[in-house]
């Protein structure tokens, strides 16, 4: 699997050389191996996130069609507020910055609403 990460290798000359406090070649290789292992995990998680988002959007497309067919508004502010509160709680319990989780969900919600508006116009 090829990786294309933005990392400390791009900004830290010592990291790019594998240097770690004057460590030798064995340490350099061990550090590179650990970086590769971690980056492979990151790549796998990124792939899972993309697939989960695709599944989520399949569901929200169905919601959009249901709303359009029944002349419901594309946005549901009360539901969105509940989702944001729920996601903030999940983020806190997962030791993730709740503000970041909220920003991410707001971005996703905005895209969903845009899709719902497009569906409503074509219905």
What does the model show?
By secondary structure, this protein is mainly alpha-helical. The protein contains 5 helices and no strands. The longest helix is centred in the middle third of the chain and has 45 residues, at 25-69. It is elongated and about 70 Å long. Mean pLDDT is 87; it is low at 1-6 and 8-20.
Question: How many E strands?
Answer: 0
Helical amount: over 70%
Structural class: mainly alpha
**In one word, what is the shape?**
elongated
Task: Give the terminus-to-terminus CA distance.
Answer: 43 Å
Mean pLDDT metric: 87
Give the SSE string: HHHHH
Radius of gyration: 21 Å
Number of helices: 5
The poorly predicted ranges are: 1-6, 8-20
> Which percent range describes the beta-strand content?
under 5%
Major sheet description:
none
List the topology elements:
Elements: H1 8-11, H2 13-16, H3 25-69, H4 77-93, H5 98-122
Helix pairs in contact: 3-5, 4-5
From the structure above, extract its key features.
123 residues; mainly alpha; disordered N terminus
Short description:
The protein is 77% helix and 0% strand. It is mostly helical. The longest helix is centred in the middle third of the chain and has 45 residues, at 25-69.
């Amino acid at each position: 699997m090829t990786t294309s990460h933005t990392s400390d290798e791009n900004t830290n000359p010592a990291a790019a050389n594998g240097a770690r406090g004057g460590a030798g070649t064995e340490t350099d290789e061990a550090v590179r191996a650990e970086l590769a292992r971690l980056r492979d995990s990151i790549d796998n998680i990124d792939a899972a996130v993309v697939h989960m988002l695709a599944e989520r959007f399949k569901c929200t497309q169905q919601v959009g069609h249901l709303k359009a067919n029944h002349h419901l508004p594309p946005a549901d502010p009360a539901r969105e507020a509940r989702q944001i509160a729920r996601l903030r709680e999940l983020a806190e319990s997962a030791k993730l910055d709740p503000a970041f989780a909220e920003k991410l969900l707001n971005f996703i919600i905005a895209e969903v609403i845009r899709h719902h508006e497009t569906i409503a116009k074509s219905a």
